[in-house]
UniProtKB/TrEMBL annotation, chain A:
Organism of provenance: Marininema halotolerans
Gene expressing this chain: nuoH
Protein's name in the database: NADH-quinone oxidoreductase subunit H
GO cellular component: plasma membrane
PROSITE patterns according to UniProt: COMPLEX1_ND1_2
A GO molecular-function annotation: quinone binding
EC number: 7.1.1.-
TrEMBL record, chain B:
Annotated GO MF terms: NADH dehydrogenase (quinone) (non-electrogenic) activity; NADH dehydrogenase (ubiquinone) activity; quinone binding
Family classification: Belongs to the complex I subunit 3 family.
Organism expressing this protein natively: Marininema halotolerans
UniProt name for this protein: NADH-quinone oxidoreductase subunit A
EC id: 7.1.1.-
Role played: NDH-1 shuttles electrons from NADH, via FMN and iron-sulfur (Fe-S) centers, to quinones in the respiratory chain. The immediate electron acceptor for the enzyme in this species is believed to be a menaquinone. Couples the redox reaction to proton translocation (for every two electrons transferred, four hydrogen ions are translocated across the cytoplasmic membrane), and thus conserves the redox energy in a proton gradient.
Entry's Gene Ontology cellular component terms: NADH dehydrogenase complex; plasma membrane
A UniProt-annotated Pfam family: Oxidored_q4
Catalyzed reaction equations: a quinone + NADH + 5 H(+)(in) = a quinol + NAD(+) + 4 H(+)(out)
InterPro entries linked to this entry: NAD(P)H_OxRDtase_bac/plastid, NADH_UbQ/plastoQ_OxRdtase_su3, NDAH_ubi_oxred_su3_sf
HAMAP family: NDH1_NuoA
Amino acid sequence: MHAMTFIGPVILLGVVLGFVTMAILFERKVIGWMQGRHGPNRVGPWGVLQSVADVLKLLLKEDIIPHQADRPLFKWAPIIAFVPAFAVLAVIPYTPTVYFADIGVGLLYYIAISSITTIGVLAGGWASNNKYALLGAMRSAAQMISYEIPLVMAVIGVIMSVGSLNLMTIVEAQKNLWFILPQFIGFAVFFVASLAELNRTPFDLPEAESELVAGYHVEYTGFRFAFFMLAEYVYVFAMAGLTTVLYLGGWNPLFGMTFIPPIIWFVFKFSLIVFSLFWIRATLPRIRIDQLMQLGWKVLLPLALANIFLSAILKEIPWIGQFY
Amino acid sequence: MTYTASYLAVAVFFLLGLALPVVALTAGRFLRPDKPSAEKSISYESGVDPTGDSWVQFNVRYYLFALLFVVFDVETVFLYPWAVVYDALRADMGLFVLGEMLFFVFFLVIGLAYAWKKKVLEWT
């Protein structure tokens, strides 16, 4: 029992909230630059306080609950969606010394807990008793469960190589070679599936504003709406962290550049993933729902399954086998 | 870090994740206006009065995907422990370990191929 067990998570919560406000600003700036605009630049110097102002505005908005809605479920849905988003951060190791829970089933814990958010989204859309919200929630649930399968199967190649589900052990196993190279197919499937899990462009169908108004949170106002959005951005944090840990070697340095501290390495790789998410949003159009479902089940799932057996076969080949 | 301390940290994360929205929404109650009116609480439907309820029978397609999801999610539950102990079993029993899993996945892929052939995955 250690005082840090209680203080550590509080500090992380502060860091995550800071990340979310800055990530939203950075996303708007990056997309602005890519489209030849300035992005937000009015609130504070360089627009840094834009997201803070948005959050304060949401805090002062009236909390409207439609009279047709299922009140208890409507109130609890954003909380059900947010709690797992923060809880998954417990298992992500940042450096050899900065970690919160070193549990043996770390990866399985992440996958199991993160899927609870689907229930929050579905509950929110259904409880709203609004046709747009229901359609958005149904799409969201169908998308999240369809892409969860390739996401979890893509990781099996990594697990076979390490022989453990503990995320610290997985990072240590990448001292010499990051898994992005030997497990490239796994990484590609994982990255595409994680975009879909995060409901981000080109897979942002649950929130397709031109057809569904806003999707599952159309009836939500003020801070309840804010918690749905917060859950989404906390997942960006979590997923970027998990991708770094699984495929980019976590805190391990590149070319033995150990003079740069491990936390900087982690933050650098993490930021690269976050930037890629924004970059993709500014680059690709939204795909149609039939394309979405076919990509998940007909391309990613067979690829992920093939990757498992390919990894097992490559283990048998002399010399190459040492990398798998 | 001990086993119990790790799981205690997990519990702290859950409690903190629950505390943040509960505290923020409770604090917000003293800050936000509260002027309910009949018009405000009508469900949104592009500016017109909503017709009927939204709690209706829904497209069966979603159910088929849910069934497929359950099949493959259970498969994952079998694949994970297998992947963890793969190297140990490989040294012990040889390629029989790989063959067994190929056999298992083969039967599930037949299910996927059937769904594919029946155009369940088309979404038309």
